[in-house]
Amino acid sequence: MITKKYATKISAHTLRSQIIKKIDSSIQIRRKDFLKKDWRRRIDILKSAKNSQEMFFYFNVCSRSDLKDLQKVIEAFKMLIVVQFISFRTTYIWFKAMNASLNLISKSVKNFKYLKRLELSLKIFNELTDIGLYHFSKCLKRSVSLQKIILDFPNCWIITDKGLARLSKSLRRLPLLQNVFFFFFHCSKITDEGLQDLAQSLGQLVCLQSVFLNFDYCYGATDKGIPSLCETIDKLACPQKISMSFKNCTNITDRGGQKVNGACLGCPL
Predict the structure, then answer these.
(1) Which of 51, 66, 112, 245 has the fewest CB atoms nearer than 10 Å to its CB?
(2) Sign of the four-CA dihedral 44, 50, 56, 58
(3) How confident is the model over 128-145, as a mean pLDDT?
(4) What is the pLDDT, as a whole number, of residue 125?
(5) Which regions of 91-208 does DSSP assign to beta strands (E)?
(6) Beta pairing partners, 10
């Protein structure tokens, strides 16, 4: 069976425009087809993709009108009932629309009953807050079929231990989760408390096989937060690939680095 893939995009350069592209065939909807305010046309395309198992959704939110457009597109996601993999990627969200945008994403994910893989990437972005992370965490409560999660939050320096704790607790509701990829590069307000909360949640995932954690330039992390993560990794029943990175964490000494290297495979420090 050929897996159908679609990609959608709200462009920063062309407000209210969409790109929905069929990856595995020659069918392609060009950007100019969406310059008209014809939401029926966009919804018709989503109807034609209702049997899609994989979807890539690229979006930027630069204004209130973009946020309204995002809401309409996400409402149409309800037709994609068999989606198993979805990727949300953005390079810019207007700071006043951050919480609302992540809340919309959370609501859309709840509709995917068969979702096995979820990815959220906020590239070149630094205004994600604990509240925004809380909104996103809500979608995980019903995603009980999820097997793989990828979160890429580079330079989100406003995130604190409270946000990471909320996200970590939501992982406990995912009994089938096998792969966890967290990129918290340069999230400097995350400390040992957040790492310990994450370790406790990972320790409750009985199916966990692969873990990749990137906390480079997280200056709040120290040697005290390392043992709990390492103990969790050591207790995994069927580990396949384990990697933790704490490069340029100035409060982690060589002793902490040795513990990380001892617990993980190919973990640069």
Answers:
(1) 51
(2) positive
(3) 86
(4) 60
(5) 117-122, 148-152, 179-183
(6) 59
Strands 85-90 and 117-122: parallel
Q: Which residue has the tokens 């995009």?
A: 9
Return the domain boundaries, the chain. Answer: 1-115, 127-263
Instruction: Give dist(CA 252, CA 22) in Å, integer.
Output: 47
Q: Which residues contact 147 (CB under 8 A, 6 or more apart)?
A: 116, 117, 176, 177, 178, 179, 207
Average pLDDT of every residue of the chain: 77
Distance in angstroms (rounded) separating the CA atoms of residues 109 and 87: 10
Q: Output the pTM of the full model.
A: 0.79
Say if residue 260's pLDDT is above 80. Answer: yes
Q: What is the third-level CATH fold of 1-115? A: Nucleotidyltransferase; domain 5 (3.30.420)
CB 211 within 8 A of CB 202: yes
In this structure, what DSSP letter does residue 203 have?
A: T
3-state secondary structure labels for all residues of 67-115? HHHHHHHHHHHHHCCCCCEEEEEECCECHHHHHHHHHHHHHHHHCCCCC
Q: How many angstroms separate the CA atoms of 126 and 202, rounded?
A: 26
Instruction: Provide the token pair at 72.
Output: 């309409």
Residue in the structure block whose two tokens are 């969200």 = 93
Helix (H, G, I), strand (E, B) or coil at 198: helix
In CATH terms, the superfamily for domain 127-263 is: Ribonuclease Inhibitor (3.80.10.10)
Distance (Å, rounded) from C-alpha 49 to C-alpha 57?
13
Of 157, 158, 165, 156, residue with least CA distance to 134: 165
Backbone angles phi, psi at 213, to 5 degrees: -125, 125
User: In CATH terms, are 1-115 and 127-263 the same topology?
Assistant: no
Q: Which two tokens stand for residue 182?
A: 């967290």
